[in-house]
Amino acid sequence: xxxxxxxxxxxxxxxxxxxxxxxxxxxxxxxxxxxxxxxxxxxxxxxxxxxxxxxxxxxxxxxxxxxxxxxxxxxxxxxxxxxxxxxxxxxxxxxxxxxxxxxxxxxxxxxxxxxxxxxxxxxxxxxxxxxxxxxxxxxxxxxxxxxxxxxxxxxxxxxxxxxxxxxxxxxxxxxxxxxxxxxxxxxxxxxxxxxxxxxxxxxxxxxxxxxxxxxxxxxxxxxxxxxxxxxxxxxxxxxxxxxxxxxxxxxxxxxxxxxxxxxxxxxxxxxxxxxxxxxxxxxxxxxxxxxxxxxxxxxxxxxxxxxxxxxxxxxxxxxxxxxxxxxxxxxxxxxxxxxxxxxxxxxxxxxxxxxxxxxxxxxxxxxxxx
Amino acid sequence: xxxxxxxxxxxxxxxxxxxxxxxxxxxxxxxxxxxxxxxxxxxxxxxxxxxxxxxxxxxxxxxxxxxxxxxxxxxxxxxxxxxxxxxxxxxxxxxxxxxxxxxxxxxxxxxxxxxxxxxxxxxxxxxxxxxxxxxxxxxxxxxxxxxxxxxxxxxxxxxxxxxxxxxxxxxxxxxxxxxxxxxxxxxxxxxxxxxxxxxxxxxxxxxxxxxxxxxxxxxxxxxxxxxxxxxxxxxxxxxxxxxxxxxxxxxxxxxxxxxxxxxxxxxxxxxxxxxxxxxxxxxxxxxxxxxxxxxxxxxx
Lengths: 370, 300
Fold this sequence. Notes:
heterodimer, A: alpha/beta, 13 helices, 46% helix, 17% strand, globular, B: mainly alpha, two-stranded antiparallel sheet, 11 helices, 73% helix
């Protein structure tokens, strides 16, 4: 290529960039980030569908601030490193706010970048307390916290199941280990010390050695802090080894996949999660819409993602600005009526009320225990 | 508990060994670390599911019969073998005389390509593997030897014996050994070295395919990413046993499986990989060419 061509290409690139810039200015960009692909893709799908429905509704009404809303997707593959680069991308692309991420281990490192880049972040699903405990003004979560969830799980084990020999496993992630440790803390308040405590590695497939070691301690209950792919393997392999221990876990396991793939082995497992969304009257609209549009039922966090996107867009519309501190202030001081019922945030960005309940796997379905 | 951990470890180890064989055979002949080998194993697992789906959808065999399982394994072997040959032909043969780094990078490329291809073709989600005679097993004091574990160990041993016979008792095996010793000399005495390399890739890949189907059954859950970790573990096994040496890969695989199971059981499951790799480092310090490896000095 001759030197004179360089000018040509440079000029071409500048024109392309200018067009891209002009195009960008005509829409409001909303960042949505989570594990869109990879082994936790099921959760990413929930996040995606919830946000999509919300944005389509807004666009049907004419968008926000007189502009159409455009979603910028960020796939973090539940990898903290990816999450940070997604966050940087969002800041550079000039999104007005972020719905996400899904995993606490991603939301937490990403939140510092959003903080520096002045972006509001609403996570639909990251439950680790640290997310809101670091005094950042820009973070909110529409879900509960693991200290609340852990104490519900521990209470259930002690008071309902009346078991005292508890083994605890976690997946060494911020979410999994965090939830496991909060549960252990609550168990210790009831004077119960776990008979076995250990971490497993995400992505591995054979957990028989650790389960065999656990079996040696003869636990009555296994509490697992982690996400569903590993929970499926643990449940299946536990039953194959002839271990009859009761399986208890948290919201990261509340997916259709867990029951579908683990099959019979999952029967009798107890999972802590929020109450039945189909019984919330405000949620019916979005649940129905999801069914029509995607021909499947909503997942654990679809409605949460829908609500997070709505709160963010509402705040932008109400403040008539894309200025993050203003939006954050408005979100904090407003009493929200959402598809999950009334929501109000405290100073830190946590929801004021977050009831966790226990679900049981019964005949291939999650059944809420009353 | 010790007995149970030994059973767990040997099962895992025999799978590692099957995959490690592919690494070691290819390295033995063209001195290439075939990073795409883990992906072949993943393809084998997917081929197993696809075959199962086809057979049961067309009502050719009943889902839990031995015939289904046999066909799953055979088709996975054929498919993976064909993939192995194709990959070698497209990605490695054109680089036969290139600097050593080029085929290595090409191998990484193939690996990334296959992972993403399967992700797009089969979806990013986990797939459940059908239950096939998983139930049942032998209970012994302190543990249980399940039918599937027996099946995996027996099949692996069978495959390894067959491979040994092939390498030491047949003409093609003799040609493989000759090509491994000196490609140029082998071609001078009339061996079609390119064909032997193809055959090596085919055999190694077919073994990985068997491992894929068996592991899919054992764990009951596969995704497009399983080849990565399995590949790393099997590669470690191959190095531990001495890369280039076939009995070395078998020994290395079994040892790695045992170390992992015992490490997880008696020390801590969090540190089991640390433990496995610490042993690898120790072995390499005292025996740089691996446990059963030949002297590597002339190769590097």
